[in-house]
Amino acid sequence: MSKRNQIGFYSLEDLVPQEHLLRDIDKYIDFSFIYQLVEDKYDQSNGRPSLDPVMLIKLPLIQYLYGIKSMRQTIKEVEVNMAYRWFLGLDIQDSIPHFSTFGKNYSRRFKGTDIFEQIFYGILAQCIEAHLVDTSEIFIDRTHIKAHANNKKYESKEITEDTLFYVKSLQKEIEIDREKQLKKPLKRKEESEENRKVKKISKIDADSGWFHKGEHKQVFAYATQVACDKNGCVGYTIHPGNQHDSRTFISIYNKLKSHFTLDKLVMDAGYKTPGIVHLLFQDNLTPVFPYKRPMTKKGFFKKYDYVYDEYYNQYICPNMKTLAYTTTNRDGYREYKSNSYDCMTCSLINKCTQSKDKRKQVQRHLWEDDMVRCENIRHSLGMTSIYNNRKQTIERLFGTAKEFHGLRYTNLIGKEKMHMKIGLTFACLSIKKLAKMLKSRDLEGSIFLSIFNYLPKLIIEYKKDKPITLNE
Fold first, then answer.
1. CB burial class (10 A; 0-12, 13-18, 19+) of residue 259?
2. DSSP code, position 110
3. Cβ-count burial of 232 within 10 angstroms (0-12 exposed, 13-18 middle, 19+ buried)?
4. 3-state secondary structure of 413
5. CB burial class (10 A; 0-12, 13-18, 19+) of residue 252?
6. What is the mean pLDDT of the chain?
7. Residue 38 backbone dihedrals phi, psi, to 5 degrees
8. What's the CA gap between 337 and 51, in Å, rounded?
9. What is the CB neighbour count within 10 angstroms for residue 243?
10. Residue 306's closest CA among 362, 247, 250, 268?
11. Where are the alpha helices (DSSP H) in 45-147?
12. Helix, strand, or coil here: 141?
């Protein structure tokens, strides 16, 4: 007999399992701060009554929390999922907002604002209040997200890239160094000329970047740069997928400095550049980097095979010949070259250089001492174990976000919408982590309390059963 047409009285509270994740989120996460964030976006004196702003924000949170592909599909899920209705504050008979509701509110109220980043930091503030944020070790890395763009629809354009953050300070040091070495000042080029490059621009999503995914595959993509501690994400930025780590680092670094007190920054080899290392030492921070393999052809001497003589400002090659200083180039590298006569008669020439003029050149950056200091830190006690924690922190965060929260690719177009997606995705990860850890604390506290309450009874029973001895 079919029970589909059976009529009964049901409570929505009873239809949601007690162990459901959304129950924990509703219990431990305070979403009331959203009202203050959107207060100036609503006019209380005009128009029809609007949807509750918290419910409006909870809709995309459900989407990213459960990795649902689109808002249209999210609304379909809310229609049949009692837990989603309960979380949104809707009854069984309440009508569900149209799938275009959030998009229209985004265009009219939220576009051009940082509201979603503020939501992320609002959740992060609750994590800090619960003592779940430890900024003594911050892990920074980036991951790529495939853009919603056809790889074949593009045009090549000449664009001007932003100037690297350390260029001005490096130029001053180049001028000082050349003056010390009795060299003429370099002729300055216009920044637009130096940073002008031809790149592929997508006709569908011009904000994305042409990213080389391995040796064979190339796609249009975005790159999100993320900072996290041992528990979760503490900051993020979004960039085109073709920008190098050394170019995008300064944006995430400035955000971290404005919100936290930093100590150790743990990053991969892509960030191990003289500019970044010099900046961190200037700010009295400890950079933790891995070993970076020299970019030298197989069978040739590595750079560390040439010994630097600081006193005479020269290099000594493996055959004990000197490479004298010649100039300091506009990239901040001192150039040291050998004597062509020494190289022509050298038996190790085939392992040293293939240059036509039979001269070996070695370059040394003006901030090379900072790179050496960075290597000394890498060899310090405990630094290897700190770097290896990336597997349990930042890499696990990326894996979870891509596998379960829809961050492997995007169906949104434009950097601003991607910024919203990234902010809400990592806000969801923080929400989930905060709810689970606070629930775990409560369980540990209740177990300890029950043991503490039962202990006096246990002592009384023990004394009753204990035999009396002569000593007593």
1. middle
2. I
3. buried
4. coil
5. buried
6. 89
7. -105, 10
8. 72
9. 16
10. 362
11. 53-65, 71-80, 82-88, 101-105, 115-129
12. strand
0.90 surpassed by pTM: no
Instruction: Return the number of other C-beta atoms located less than 10 Å from residue 274's C-beta.
Output: 21
- Quote the radius of gyration of the chain (alpha carbons, Å): 30
Please give the Cα distance from 74 to 63 (Å, whole number): 6
Q: Give the number of other Cβ atoms within 10 Å of residue 299's Cβ.
A: 7
Contacts of 144 (CB under 8 A, 6+ apart): 211, 213, 221, 222, 223, 241
Distance CA 158, CA 181 (A): 37
Interatomic CA distance for residues 24 and 149, integer angstroms = 38
Contact 202, 155 (CB under 8 A): no
The DSSP bridge pattern shows strands 264-267 and 233-240 to be unpaired
pLDDT digits (tens, 9 = 90+) for 189-230: 765 556 788 889 999 999 999 998 776 789 999 999 999 999
In the chain the first and final C-alpha atoms are separated, in Å, by 74
For residue 310, the SS3 value is: coil
Greatest mean pLDDT among 26-35, 191-200, 350-359 lies in 26-35
DSSP label of 189: P
Distance CA 333, CA 353 (A): 19
- 165 three-class SS: coil
Question: Helix, strand, or coil here: 146?
Answer: strand
Sign of the torsion angle spanned by Cα atoms 161, 162, 163, 164: negative
What pLDDT does 472 receive?
A: 43
The CB density around residue 449, as the number of other CB atoms within 10 Å, is 10
Q: Which residue has the tokens 């493996």?
A: 318
Length of the chain: 472
In the chain, the largest separation of any two C-alpha atoms, in whole Å, equals 103
Q: Which 3 state secondary structure label does DSSP give 292?
A: coil
Higher pLDDT, 320 or 460: 320
Dihedral of CA 358/359/363/369: which sign? positive
State the DSSP H helix or E strand holding residue 157, giving kind and residue range, or none if neither. strand 154-160
